[in-house]
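haha ok so turns out i had the wrong file open the whole time. this is the CORRECT one, sorry everyone. sequence first:
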Amino acid sequence: MKFLRKVSMAILLAAIGMLAANAAEREEKVVYHISDSAVATAALNNIRNHLAASPKAKIVVVTHGPGIDFLLEGAKNKNGNPYDATVQELSMRHNVEFRVCNNTLEARKIDKAQVIPEATIVPSGVAEVARLQIREGYAYLKP
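then structure:
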């Protein structure tokens, strides 16, 4: 009986070790969900901090409603600094993407040409968040 317990314990510990190794090798993927541009500056700072701690993390920023405003041409933060430079810098890292909800653009009658080139337009912001979580295994963050 003692022998069986020891063998069972050894198998259990080996399985736990394999699971931990597999989790460590998995790609870190995170979706930042922004529905209000009032948090855009803080969110962009969070993303910078995130990348400083995890440089290989793949980050997708999905916006809808008032959250799209910082991704429009000429958008500036409360201090008058343009958002586009920060968005461009993060986009150039090749592991940060920005997505804008087309439903919001249509509802607010905003021309797609007003969306900065670093952002991609998706049919629905909330559907994109769900898709990334369910189908692609992204962790969800709401700054």
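The radius of gyration is 20 Å.
again sry for the mixup
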